[in-house]
Amino acid sequence: MAGFTLAAISLLLAGTGAATQAYGQVKAGKQAKAQGYANKDAAESQAQLADYNASVADLQALDAEQRGEEEANRYRQGVRALFGEQRTGLAASGVDVGSGSALDVQADATFLGELDALTIRTNAAREAWGYKVQAVDLRARARITRKEGVYAAAAGEDAARAGTIGAATTLLGASGSLLESRYRSRKGKAT
Asked: What is the pLDDT at residue 6?
């Protein structure tokens, strides 16, 4: 009778250990799933920030283009004003401003002034291009970060499934061991 009681206690402890182990596996799976979704939420927040920063870069590009155009126009106006002052000064000195060297100097000044205005616009376009490249990069990072979040959530789901399957396997293994022990115990009594 004492042997049977000891065997029963041993079986009970084995079953309790298996149940505890199975519970731990399910709990770990749930924690992994929760962590996966937390990682997905964090990735989405980072992606939204990258999208926002891309929008800011788009606005900076537009601003650079507009500033460049305005600055080029102001420069042209300054050149025209200077050109007018030169013509007035030459005319006051008695120089014919419509022909000869005076006309050549005015044409050169106009050409160089326009060249400088175009340089201003080109520099602004380069600045805008840098912001546009930055915006494209940030949007690509946002897409990648979102995908990483989806993968993290899927990995959490997989870990939760694995924990459940592991728990079931543990319980089935323990049940098999208990049944085998019970069978041996009965077989021993029968002989």
From this structure: 60
Q: Token pair of 154, please?
A: 């899927």
For the chain, give every domain's residue range.
2-190
Instruction: Please report, for residues 57, 166, 183, the alpha-carbon distance to residue 153 in angstroms, rounded to integers and kept in the order given.
Output: 30, 20, 45
- C-alpha triplet 148, 152, 154: angle, nearest 5°: 115
- Report which residue type is found at 69: E
pLDDT (0 to 100) of residue 73: 96
For 128, residues 6+ apart whose C-beta sits below 8 A from its C-beta are 60, 61, 62, 64, 65, 68
Of 76, 57, 80, the closest CA to residue 68 belongs to: 76
Mean pLDDT split into 10-residue runs, the chain, 191 residues? 57 72 85 91 95 97 97 95 88 88 87 95 97 97 95 91 85 73 66 57
Contact residues for 151 (Cβ-Cβ < 8 A; gap 6+): none
Q: Report the distance separating Cα 32 and Cα 139, nearest Å.
A: 29
Q: What share of the chain is helix, strand, coil (3-state, %, to 5)?
A: 95, 0, 5
177 exposure class (CB count in 10 Å sphere: 0-12, 13-18, 19+): middle
Quote the pLDDT of residue 1. 46
- 93 DSSP 8-state letter: T
Half-sphere exposure in the Cβ direction for 117 (13 Å, CA): 18
